[in-house]
Amino acid sequence: MVNRVLPLFFFASFAIVVAGCAATYQPLGLLGGYSDEQITNDTFDVWYQGNGWTKPDELEKHLLRRCAEITLEKGYERFVILNAKERSNASRSATIKM
After folding, report:
1. How far apart are CA 59 and CA 33, in angstroms?
2. Greater pLDDT, 12 or 42
3. Is this model's pTM higher than 0.70 or not?
């Protein structure tokens, strides 16, 4: 019985650890996140850095979310992406104008 339970326990523990390593939507930290820099009154550079477990569509979703948040925080209703870059497999950036 113990011989069957022990491998299952290790597999479950490993799955929990790996799931916890995916980048979450947060300010830039050890496991990734967003950062931004104001260029002019209505123009920003926005970055989203993931990690080895972050899927490309998740990176883009988080980047667009941050762009939308900045737009609303500054009192605008919409933004235009002036320039977008795939910096690496785990990093995206955009320059937006509101």
Report:
1. 9
2. 42
3. yes
